[in-house]
From TrEMBL:
Organism of this sequence: Cryptolaemus montrouzieri
Name of the protein described by the UniProt record: NADP-dependent oxidoreductase domain-containing protein
Domain NADP-dependent oxidoreductase: 36-318
InterPro entries: AKR (IPR020471), LGALDH-like (IPR044479), NAD(P)_OxRdtase_dom_sf (IPR036812), NADP_OxRdtase_dom (IPR023210)
CDD domains per record: AKR_galDH (cd19163)
């Protein structure tokens, strides 16, 4: 008989659905996380329209269906996502979920967007606890470490400050996130503080499998690996990405052609992308953001039942026709270059 996860709460959860969900231990932590995790970047304007009441329904249905790990951060909507999530969690037993949030990335203003200092880190942790209405946060992650003016500040200020909160019992575990896995590896190798989790986004998808190169290293450090944004921040969906997406027009065009093919066959590309991620070994959980119940149910259907015969046929055809042998698979360096240019321009305009 399949055992129930530590987050199971009798009277709250649907036990039959809990038993359909797979759970993995998140690295060296004692957290048994669901194979599918809920991202809340969409609990703000970042990914288009959102409705706070619908977000509440998403959280409740996701948790009752076996999802037990929720990811958020002060960057999403510049505090809005954390605030909305906090309201969503008010009527939910604290035992029923693990939560990961972040420090380091904050405001839209390029001059205020990143701050990895010890002072700001302390303020951010306390603000997140207040917004979320919690006494402790399970996983606190340093957000997008590649944007730090120097990794020295992450190593000497951000991480030691988070360790202080671990010692106080306000944080359970410490993680890092970012786009270039080479930078994540450097931080992990050099860190004086024990790092428990690593969140890598859009790097183990139907179009980019570069995370595989780093999995042996992460596993050797007994890290809990979070495979985030397996839909390529919207690239691998029938709806397509937001206008701000940093991918090249060439890569966007290929993904749009794949989406159009899926639409012609009445298949959702997003289902195929999630199915691909579920087949990959290494990550403890797959982080997929959603702010509406239809999309949540679509994701849960893939987790619980896989693809049907028609979808599997289209999955193989899309993989071979559109994504096999891609010369360009990512946008590494694009956002960092854009940020530096915007910061330089902003500073000059302010003089």
């Amino acid at each position: 008989m399949k055992s129930l996860p530590p987050t199971y709460v009798k009277g709250f959860h649907d036990e039959s659905l809990i038993k359909k969900m797979k759970y993995n231990v998140l690295g060296s932590t004692n957290l048994h996380v669901s194979q599918l995790a809920l991202g809340t970047g969409g609990f703000s304007y970042f990914f288009g329209h959102y409705d706070a009441e619908e977000c509440k329904l998403v959280v409740e249905e996701a948790l009752k269906s076996g999802v037990n790990y929720i990811d958020t951060g002060p960057w999403y909507g510049h505090g809005v996502a954390e605030e909305i999530l906090g309201k969503c969690l008010q009527a939910i037993p604290r035992k029923a979920f693990y939560i990961g949030t972040k420090v380091g990335r904050y405001e839209a203003d390029p001059k205020l967007m990143f701050d990895f200092s010890a002072k700001k880190t302390r303020e951010s942790v306390m603000t997140s606890l207040k917004r979320l209405g919690l006494d402790y946060i399970d996983v606190m992650q340093v957000h997008d470490v590649e944007f730090a003016p120097s990794l020295e500040i992450v190593l000497n200020e951000t991480l030691p400050t988070l360790q202080e909160f671990v010692n106080e019992g306000k944080i359970g575990f410490i993680g890092v996130t970012g786009y270039p896995n080479s930078v994540l590896r450097e931080v992990i190798e050099r860190s004086p503080i024990k790092i428990n989790t690593v969140l890598s986004y859009t790097r183990l998808t139907m179009i980019d499998q570069s995370l595989k190169e780093y999995l042996p290293f992460y596993k050797s450090k007994n890290l809990g690996i979070i495979n985030a944004s397996v839909h390529g921040m919207g690239l691998l969906t029938n709806g397509g990405p937001q206008s701000w997406h940093p991918a090249s027009e060439k890569l966007k065009k290929i993904c749009a052609e794949a989406a159009e093919f899926c639409k012609e066959n009445n298949v959702e590309l997003g289902k195929l992308a999630l199915y691909f991620a579920l087949q990959q070994n290494g990550p403890s959980t797959i982080l997929s953001g959603t702010n509406c119940t239809p999309l949540l149910r679509l994701n849960l259907e893939v987790v619980q039942n896989g693809l049907n015969e028609k979808e599997m046929k289209i999955y193989k055809e899309v993989s071979n026709r559109f994504f096999a042998g891609l010369e360009e698979t990512n946008w590494e360096g694009v956002e960092l270059k854009r940020f530096k240019e915007n910061t330089f321009s902003f500073e000059n305009d302010s003089k």
